[in-house]
Protein: Lipocalin-like domain-containing protein
Organism: Pontimicrobium aquaticum
Amino acid sequence: MKSDSNSELPKELFQRWELDYGMVNGEKISGLPKSPSNDYKFKRNGEYLLYNVDETYMTGTWEYNSDEKIIYTKRDDGELNGKVADLKAESITLIPAGKAVEGTPFENFRFYYKPKTE
């Protein structure tokens, strides 16, 4: 029986994640903003928080596709803005959606997150 429930997600997903590093076309991206900027926090109710450098945050929604094993994130206006793949207790991978700078499609970017420790 196919289920779109979130029960197969690792419980560790529901915590705050900080950006560990980014890659584009196989090369590490340098100079990424440090936590709390770009921290993500996934909530069980299908919301997520995306933090700014001053600890304020934007909210959006997320949806898990159990066939693809991917979380789709959407802005509050419903526009798809990313996918979270490779869900593990110790790391998640964010693939942004949309256009990036200088004509490089965001789909070539990978941002690797680790659990935020105090």
